[in-house]
């Protein structure tokens, strides 16, 4: 059994690795980040257009929220009960056996679920945030991110730009009082059998068809399982 000092060292190394991953992703232009000033400017422009056209109320609020997250408007949440929301969406929730959490620098391709939900992974986790299509991190990195309690939303290759924009809005929603808290969005690269899926450590919400009901299913999955993992890293 690892000593307390070894455990502290491991956590420190993981925090440092996560920071390095974030810096590398930023340098490569992979990670999409929206600064507060830019988001505010977009909101001003979009809301101004909405007001000029005479729209208001719920439509204006939806447009503003979409602009703040860099996405497109999505349906407001209608269902908060987990089982009801998942059933209405036609998605499938599955809990999987834990495949372990061994750190390995060499590439690993032995995951038993698709998308992967646990197992051997890189010492460096993928950074939080939104990744543009074609720039997803390697599964070996984001499986480590799952170990840190993140919810990763993945859409299949070829998903329409409109749906991707809507998922960006969903990713930017408040979770535990913070926009986009511990939620990651990326294009799937493992040829998963779903239009869209959300994964956490040892759990999958798989949706073979992407519909408007999918948003509530992902919301309840996210809210129930965020930070439910072996390690909680801020």
UniProtKB/TrEMBL annotation:
InterPro entries hit by this protein: DUF3105
Source organism superkingdom: Bacteria
Composition-biased stretches (Basic and acidic residues): 1-26
Transmembrane segments: 31-52
Protein keywords: Membrane, Transmembrane, Transmembrane helix
Region annotated Disordered, chain positions: 1-27, 56-79, 92-130
UniProt cross-references to Pfam families, sorted A to Z: DUF3105
Protein name: DUF3105 domain-containing protein
The organism of origin for this protein: Svornostia abyssi
């Amino acid at each position: 059994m690892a000593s307390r000092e070894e455990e502290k060292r491991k956590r420190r190394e993981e925090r440092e690795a996560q920071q390095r991953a974030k810096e590398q992703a930023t340098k490569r232009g992979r990670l999409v980040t929206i600064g507060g000033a830019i988001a505010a400017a977009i909101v001003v422009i979009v809301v101004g257009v909405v007001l000029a056209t005479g729209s208001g109320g719920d439509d204006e609020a939806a447009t503003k929220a979409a602009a703040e997250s860099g996405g497109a408007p999505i349906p407001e949440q209608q269902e908060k009960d987990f089982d009801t929301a998942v059933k209405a969406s036609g998605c499938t929730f599955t809990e999987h056996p834990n495949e372990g959490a061994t750190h390995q620098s060499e590439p690993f391709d032995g995951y038993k679920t698709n998308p992967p939900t646990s197992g051997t992974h890189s010492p460096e986790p993928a950074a939080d945030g939104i990744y543009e299509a074609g720039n997803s991190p390697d599964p070996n990195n984001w499986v480590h991110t799952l170990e840190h309690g993140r919810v990763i939303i993945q859409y299949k290759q070829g998903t329409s730009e409109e749906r991707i924009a809507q998922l960006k809005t969903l990713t930017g929603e408040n979770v535990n009082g913070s926009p986009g808290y511990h939620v990651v969005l990326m294009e799937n690269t493992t040829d998963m059998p779903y239009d869209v899926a959300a994964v956490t450590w040892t759990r999958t919400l798989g949706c073979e068809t992407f519909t408007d009901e999918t948003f509530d299913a992902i919301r309840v999955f996210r809210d129930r399982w965020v930070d439910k993992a072996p390690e909680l890293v801020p």
